[in-house]
Write a structure and sequence with these properties.
Number of domains: 2
Strand order of the largest sheet: 1-8-5-4-2-3
CATH architecture of the largest domain: Up-down Bundle
CATH topology of the largest domain: Dehydroquinate synthase-like, alpha domain
Shape: globular
Strand content: 15-25%
CATH class of the largest domain: Mainly Alpha
Structural class: alpha/beta
Order of helices and strands: EHEHHEHEHEHEEEHHHHHHHHEEH
Bound molecules: glycine
Number of helices: 15
Largest sheet: 6 strands, parallel
Amino acid sequence: MKLSVRTVNTSKYPVLIGDGILEQLRKRLKESRKLKPKLFILTDSNTNRFCLPELLKHIPELEDAIVFTVDTGEEVKSLRTAEYIWKELVSHQADRSSLLINLGGGMVTDLGGFVASSFHRGIDTIHIPTSLIGQIDAAIGAKTGVNIDALKNQVGSFYAPKGVYVWPGFLKTLPVEQLRSGIAEVAKTALIRDEQFWRWLSRKSLQKILEIPFSENFWKELLLKTIRIKLEIVRHDPFERNQRQLLNFGHTIGHAIESLALRRETPILHGDAVAAGMLCEGFLSVQRTGLDPLQMAEISNWIIRGFGKLPLLQEDEAVRMDMMQHDKKNRQQKIRFTLLTGIGKGKINQVCSPDLISDAFGKYYTL
Ligand code: GLY
């Protein structure tokens, strides 16, 4: 007997961006309060201090919510922390009608999304991303996950939140290095998809961008441009079977660099690792997918001027290579990259040999 199965797609959910969106969330929560779900908020120690008061000011009804607070940092995104939150949910009698609101950067929304996806086989969750990376990338696209040892996002799920509320006001709470880190993901988004967007962004140096007051339209435009591209990509490929891999440009090498730093207990910012990853993968693109060396020089100048250079050691190459073997894009033990054929044009599924990768690192050392 043959049974046919209808595959489940990630459900649609609203992504709301703008100054008034916390009021919209308030309205929505008031409506759902009629059902009396138990409300939980996940924060880290920074967002508890700097963002939760702001959220409560806009949505006083959340005063009744039970708040969990975890430490900051990528090392917190672990099964151990997930277990701690699951136990807290149990001890507060959370049930299937409960709602978990994740208030924080990518670490919090990845972790909270993962916890929600598996607690009682899935409870409702809402993301309120507070970092630039969270707002333009991590909280959008229904990926959840935790790290295993130092390896990033090895365990996780695709789990659609009930909504993503992007309030630009939270950007004001960020230390400048977090903002810088987020701009690396913005640059990546432009490089894989939209040359005009890259021109708009790279017209200014990173230093100049970081000096732009949040009251200026620049920031809203940056959020909108980046989120639009991300949504357009994930809408067509929610489970990363193909085009969503475009978003991994700079990340195969970037994650290896970040994971190694994490393993050595000297963590670096995701964006700094991705900036270095984009340079190395840019060099691979010149070799493998015909990126014009002049365009590569343009990319390289802007990134190096803004992000500087990480002190990568040649003797770590073997261990970085080993870490790249864990990349989720790989098949048949071959390391696969998303590369560029030009500015604004990413190309997925590019196998590169260890020699080519080593050569790209070599170019990075001598920049
Ligand atoms: N951050 C990459 C993705 O969401 O697919």
